[in-house]
Amino acid sequence: MVPKKLALFKNGYGTVTLEGKTAEGSSMELAGLPTPSYGSFWLSAEQGVSVRELISSKVKEIIPKPEYGRNELLAANAGKLIKITTTEGGMIVGRMVKPVNNKVRESNRPNLMGSLSSPVEDGRDMNRSSFAMAGSLLMQTETGHVVLQEAAVQQVEFLEKEISFPTWTTDRTRLVMNLEKPAPGKTVTVNSLSSGISWLPTYRVELGAEGHAQLQCKATIMNELMDLEKVDMELISGFPRLAMPGLPSPISMKQNMSALFAALGSEKPGTEYARSLMDNYMSQARTPQPVFTMEKATAIDPGTVKQAEDLFFYSLPDFSCKYRETVTRNLFGGDVPYRHIYTWDIPNQKGLSEWNQNRDRGAAVSPLDVWHCIQLTNGLNLPWSTGMVEFVSQGRLAGQSTLTFTNPGERVLVRLNKSMETMVHVSEETLSSEPVKVRSSSYQKYTVKGTLTMRNVSGRNMEFQVNKNIIGTPETVSGEGEMSSLPNWNRSLNPDGKFQWKLTLKPDEKKDLEYQYTYLD
Questions:
Q1: 3-state secondary structure of 345
Q2: Residue 496 contacts residue 519 (beta carbons within 8 Å)
Q3: CA nearest 71: which of 149, 137, 146?
Q4: What whole-number distance in Å separates Cα of residue 344 and Cα of residue 145?
Q5: What CA–CA distance (Å, rounded) separates 341 from 464?
Q6: Contact indicator for 367, 349 with CB cutoff of 8 Å
Q7: Is 311 exposed, middle or buried (0-12, 13-18, 19+ CB in 10 A)?
Q8: How many of the other CB atoms lie within 10 Å of CB of 51?
């Protein structure tokens, strides 16, 4: 079977379509198939072909070893007449004793269903006799058996014309298709979801003048599956749900029945759930942004993008890649609008208290951090998939971050660096306290006034977005700020609240943002 079409997810899996021709008879082996995930193996045939059944079985094969040592060569020629010259000048003529049988281990290409495995003997990849394992050689001579230390052997001469070379006893899955009647030369197609091949997008954004940037996206395809020759390649972007990608189909015979049923009975069979930053790259991450009316930018190379339900497919026709090769291709690019935005997120009282306690220990996150962000607008006619983005300004690296999934017409805010051109301060004071009763219980109600002080020490205007979280009820906010309370579904004594401001500071301008809130204790 030959691969014709692939569609790759970013989690190490892809859908693979292979084609082949039927043979003269009614029974034939389907070779070169990748290991399918559970429930994903489907076979179809050209009209006029009636498939009766598919039969999987384990078969053993013997293949020559590409590399071997002297003792392995001797073991392969057990029973043949040899002459050994020792380091002391002596000569021994006899026959090597036949070694013990090899055992078999898993395949060194586990992503191919019919791949060959490699032998082991007591955990070692060697075809050696049990005597050789102990550093000795056992020979049968005319007068009896002789044990030689390996270090005592200087030369070995084979006294017979024909010699054998070391081999591996291998184990692979054989899949046979039986037809109702012969139908030679017809096309058979196999589709499956298989592991061993994936793609990752990376972006480069060159920040230009007047709010316009050049965005370029490249795709890196990592192939640990099979040789690909001029296939139709599609790269998938979206939020796919794959139920059991890590569970092999029973047709591959990668596990026995007990292991299969144990996996099916587990809570999350064969699925690895995203918990790390890299998992977000492999799957998808998205920052919700409102859709708005904008002037479309002109794409340099929009490529070909197709959509199937909720997934998007970037096309790479006539794609070729050898097994264990990594190929990088330019995917698309274009001119996109951008803005500099500085964000300041201040945690609630609990977060501030924990930071004050740990600030001398080098706390990683500080409430005094102001982030310089780049707000990109997707003016291209295709979505941006989650991936690493590199920003370049005036020909120099400005920073790296993560670009999250962004639909055409949406904005996405990407952190660039911590701002070194702002000075900020947080202060809070208790204005009053009074006793209150809530649900027949007595509490103290505190009124707190807070002040956020900001100063722009750069030589240009700076646009800010400020968020202050609280535990309590917002009461007042200064300027054009907004305040809100989150739904108190758990009926907590104090709800969660938030103050928000959007403002622009001129060079060297200082601004105080004030707020008040109450909480019970």
A1: strand
A2: no
A3: 137
A4: 85
A5: 6
A6: no
A7: middle
A8: 15
CB burial of 501-511 (b: ≥16 within 10 Å; e: otherwise) equals bebebeeeeeb
Number of other CB atoms surrounding residue 520 within 10 Å: 16
pLDDT (tens digit per residue) in 409-444: 899 999 999 999 999 999 999 999 999 988 788 999
Neighbours of 2 (CB within 10 A): 13
Q: Torsion-angle region of residue 422: left (phi > 0), alpha (psi -120 to 50) or beta?
A: beta
Q: How far is CA 444 from CA 132, 438, 520, in A?
A: 84, 10, 6
Q: Is the pLDDT of residue 362 over 70?
A: no
- Structural contact between residues 37 and 192, judged by C-beta atoms closer than 8 angstroms: yes
CA distances from 54 to 178, 190, 261 (A): 6, 12, 21
**pTM for this one?**
0.75
Span of 17-21, 297-301, 425-429 with lowest mean pLDDT: 297-301
Which tokens sit at 294? 């904008």
* Structure token pair of residue 68: 């071997």
Q: What is the mean pLDDT of residues 1-30?
A: 92
Give exposure, 419-455, as e/b (b: 16+ Cβ within 10 Å): beebebeeeeeeeeeeeeeeeeeebebbbbbbebebe
Write out pLDDT tens, residues 476-486: 999 889 999 98
The predicted pLDDT at position 355 comes to 74
pLDDT of residue 129: 40
pLDDT in tens, 270-293: 444 333 334 444 445 555 443 333
Cβ contacts of residue 190 below 8 Å, gap of 6+? 1, 17, 18, 19, 20, 30, 33, 41, 42, 43
Alpha-carbon distance of 29 to 175, in angstroms, equals: 6
SS3 content of the chain, % helix, strand, coil (to 5): 10, 55, 35
Confidence of residue 222 (pLDDT cuts 50, 70, 90): very high
pLDDT of residue 2: 94
| Half-sphere exposure for 426 (CA within 13 Å, toward CB) | 21
- In angstroms, rounded to a whole number, what is the distance separating the alpha carbons of residues 3 and 227? 8
